[in-house]
Amino acid sequence: LAKTTQPISMDSYEGQEVNITCSHNNIATNDYITWYQQFPSQGPRFIIQGYKTKVTNEVASLFIPADRKSSTLSLPRVSLSDTAVYYCLVGDYETGFQKLVFGTGTRLLVSP
Amino acid sequence: GAGVSQSPSNKVTEKGKDVELRCDPISGHTALYWYRQSLGQGLEFLIYFQGNSAPDKSGLPSDRFSAERTGGSVSTLTIQRTQQEDSAVYLCASDGRDTDTQYFGPGTRLTVL
Fold it and tell me: A49 touching B, CB under 8 A?
C-alpha cells in the first residue's frame, strides 16, 4: 500500500484558496488518489478522487502531475465550516476492495 | 437507509467487560469495513468484509477482537475483556462494487474505564 505524506496542519482565512499537497512516491499503476474530510465527532466524508491530471467537482479540485507521485487538493474560497482534517489516500479498486490506510491527515484551521 | 448507521453512538464500559458494536451499511453495499480512531490519531484499519466473508482480518489488534457479518448486511464488532487502550471511536464504512468511495458511519465512541 502506498504511503502518503501530508502537512500536519495549515492555517487560512475565510475567502482564501487553500492548497494541500500530499506525497505518495510509491503509488502503483492501479492506484487512485482519494481525499476525505473529517469533522470532529464524525466519520470521514469523501471529497474528491482522481487518477491523473485534474478533477473538479462542486467542492474542490484535485491536481495530479504526470508522474502521480504527489497530488494537491485545492479548496477555493474557504469558509469557517471548512475547518476539518483532510486525509489523502491512495489505493486500487481492481479487486473491488480498498483497504484505506489513513495517515494523521492535515488539520486545516480557517479563521475569520 | 440513506447512509451507514452505527449503534450505540456512545458506550462506556468497565475494564474486563465484553462489548458489541453494530454497523448497518448502505443497502446493497457488498463491502464493509471497520476502522478505529484513537484520540488525535488517523484511522486504523481493522477488518474488511466482502459479503459475509472476511478476506482481510490483518488489522485486528488482538484475539480479543472479532467481527461477523450476516446476510451480507449488518455487522457486529465484538471486543472481549476490554482494556483501557481499547478506548477509541470505532468507525464502519461500506461501498458497492459500482462505487469507488467508502461511505462512513458516525462511529461509536467507546470508553473503557
Answer: yes
Q: Name every chain B residue with its beta carbon within 8 A of the beta carbon of A98.
A: 95, 100, 102
Total residues belonging to chain A: 112
Give the single-character DSSP code of B71. Answer: T
For the stretch A24-67, pLDDT in tens is 898 888 888 889 999 987 888 989 989 988 999 999 999 999 99
Can you list the pairs that B81-85 forms with residues at least 24 positions away whose Cβ atoms lie under 8 Å?
B81/B16, B81/B17, B81/B18, B82/B13, B82/B14, B82/B15, B82/B16, B82/B17, B82/B18, B82/B19, B82/B110, B82/B112, B83/B15, B83/B112, B84/B15, B84/B112, B84/B113, B85/B112
Alpha-carbon distance B66 to nearest alpha carbon in chain A (angstroms): 18
Tell me the average pLDDT across A93-101. Answer: 58
* Chain A residue closest in CA terms to B55: A97
Torsion, CA A6, CA B108, CA B23, CA B102, rounded to 10: -10
pLDDT band at B1 (very low <50, low <70, confident <90, very high): low
